[in-house]
Amino acid sequence: MNNSESRNRRQRILIIDDQQDVLDLMTELLEPQEYQVTTLNQVQDIFTEIDNSQPDIILMDFILSGINGGEFCAQIKKNVHTKHIPVIFLSAHSRVIESPGNYGYDDFIAKPFDVDDVLATIKKYLPARST
Predict the structure, then answer these.
(1) CA distance 90 to 98
(2) At the N or C end, where does the chain have fewer CB atoms within 10 A?
(3) Domains assigned to the chain
(4) What region holds the Response regulatory domain (predicted)?
């Protein structure tokens, strides 16, 4: 990909949440903002999903079916090829940020979330690109 293609490519967001209504809402919110959105309601291998979607940022529920989202985050942040990708936790449990373990996440958005907060948090990690 040359510099021009890189600048013009839509920024990619991977969203992982086991609640389909959250995935639908986030897609409706973010696609009109010119983001390329990939949603998953379950994940077996986080690195396969990252390879497939090539995200610029990951929004992830902290409590997922079958695994703690913090464990996925820790795997992402320990891997030399993925540690640069910002990981934002989404959770209805605001005490998540006080939970034991250093998962290396970049930010936290409490559910229910305010759409302006979601957009501001994403923009904090994905600066606007010139067209």
Answers:
(1) 14
(2) C
(3) 3-125 (3.40.50.2300)
(4) 12-126
